[in-house]
Amino acid sequence: MRRLCVLLLSLPIWFASPAWSTTLKVCYHYGCQRQAAFQVSERDEISLAALFSSTHSDVEERIAVVQAVQQLYQVAATQFAPIAEDRGGNFRDGTAEGKMDCVDHSTNVQGFLDYFMAQGWLRFHQLMGRTWRAPWVLDLHYAAQLHDIVDGSDWIVDSWFKDFGAPPLMVPLAIWMEGYSP
Question: Which positions make up the signal peptide (predicted)?
């Protein structure tokens, strides 16, 4: 009887509790000087999982990665609005609180890719970590890298070039290494 009373008393708390979520981080303010945590809700996770569940090839999976990275940035901005102030590149941000350089973007995207892999959503790609290029002496740039296990190609996922909210670019590594810029 006592167990039943405890159970009945805890039901309102259990039903009032928010749905479970996963905590991820975004860094910002150039060089990951600042960080903010955000929650990926059960609803967000179901939406993300749906993107990957319909992939049947490496090409489709890369499209899903682009959409999922974009979606996670949007989720993060709803909980930590300053990152929505970020502008493509490094010179249009001004004094924006949420400005991000390529170090911030590559770290964030790598964290998102790690999350996708941990969920078992990446079946056609391996994570290769962050990589960098310096095609010209003063043009150092970082991005996250994927390896296609189907055809052996390497890809860059780069969200730095465009204003916040735009989908990241998925570029072959060889082209990106030459100094690619849209």
Answer: 1-21
